Amino acid sequence: MLKIRVLIVDDSVVIRKILSDELSKDPMIEIAGVAANGRIALQKIPQINPDVITLDIEMPEMDGLETLREIRKVYADLPVIMFSTLTERGGAATLDALAHGASDYVTKPANVGKVSEARQRVRDDLASKIFALCRKAPADAVERIATPVVTSDQPAVIRKPKPVGNQRIEILAIGVSTGGPNALADVIPLLPGDLPVPVLIVQHMPPLFTRLLGERLNGKSELEVKEAEEGDAVEAGRVLIAPGDFHMELALSGTGFVAHMQQGPPENSCRPAVDVLFRSVASHFGANALGVIMTGMGQDGLRGCELFSENGAPVFVQDEETSVVWGMPGFVANAGLADRVLPLDQLAGEISRRVGTKTAARAHP
After folding, report:
1. How would you list the strands of the sheet with 52-56, edge to edge?
2. 3-state SS of the chain: helix, strand, coil percent to 5?
3. Where would I find the beta strands (DSSP E) of the chain?
């Protein structure tokens, strides 16, 4: 049985030990090598030919960002998962890394001295991302994965694609995960400033990271983009991103809607969860909502899209070719719930046409 070969790059002996111990427990994973900094890692890559790399951001001699840039010069498609801290600096560096070609990221526990917490993080987050990302690796690496990463307690409802209705769209809801920051950066800045509907986004990210993402998108967009706060008005021309660790829903306020944040149980192991947002949008807007599911692992959003479909609301999904991981959009498309399956570079235009805008935005530099 061929295994997924992992190269671990981290200057911490403790972290290298934890990653090696926990990942090697999986019979499908082999630790091909370890490196204490980027320079050593660059030397080892051609020698051990890894299928995926875990890369610490903060390291001496050559940090993770510099190492990533060098990796991408030679290995354009080699999956790289960044290991970052839940800090302002760590969040900004993570978004920089994703923009420079990192495949995904995992956050380190706040206190690496809590070994049990660190080991649990590896088991819960890192291993599943390794399997998901190696699906986008060359064929010989894909063959090393025997089963899907995410399974469902209930089988998806298979439906035939339905015709697109002509009803007025009054709100746009977007769900996205792995690969999302870059995908959103290719869509949101291309939506025109006169977009006549509000936009609500669930991007699976931890606290602080969602605020930084909103700030970056806001600087590139004609629309106002921000991390949602309790009571924010849901109105045309505004994009609200669910804050990390909070579900986002709609709440009535006077004659309009505001964003409501709550910390109910995670759904699909996620908080914020796409299903929570879509369920709320479906209950208030029925057929007059547009749902978009973009790149991401897992199946968060599937149940929400079933509600959209039952209401007659259209659903667009990102296609497999342009998705970093075709999990979330793939589940929706395979269930026959998608009205359009579109490459990333066509999503903004199709969204604008569907909601009735007449102008097109130009991406800010």
Report:
1. 29-35, 4-9, 52-56, 80-84, 104-107
2. 40, 20, 40
3. 4-9, 29-35, 52-56, 80-84, 104-107, 171-176, 199-203, 224-227, 233-234, 238-241, 247-253, 256-262, 289-293, 315-318, 340-342
Per-residue pLDDT tens digits for 98-113:
999 999 999 876 655 5
Residue 174 structure tokens: 């977007």
List all residues 6 or more positions away from 31 whose beta carbon is below 8 Å from its beta carbon: 6, 8, 19, 20, 23, 24
Q: Domains of the chain: which residue ranges?
A: 4-142, 171-355
| Length reported for the chain | 365
Q: Closest Cα partner for 288 from 165, 166, 168?
A: 168
Of 11, 51, 56, 300, the active-site residue reads 300
Q: What is the pTM of this model?
A: 0.88
Annotation marks residue 177 as catalytic: yes
Render pLDDT for 240-258 as a digit per residue (tens, 0 to 9).
999 999 999 999 998 899 9
**Which amino acid, residue 327?**
G
May I ask the CATH class of domain 171-355?
alpha beta
Dist. CA 201–CA 214, nearest whole Å: 10
CATH code matching the domain that covers 4-142, chosen among 3.30.365.10, 3.40.1230.10, 3.40.50.150, 3.40.50.2300: 3.40.50.2300
pLDDT > 90 in the chain, percent: 77
Beta bridge partners of 5: 30
Catalytic residue among 10, 84, 104, 177: 177
Task: Measure the CA dihedral 206/172/349/97, to 10°.
Answer: 0
CA-based max dimension of the chain: 65
171-355 has the same fold as 4-142: yes
Of 84, 103, 204, 339, the active-site residue reads 204
Specify whether 253 is catalytic. no
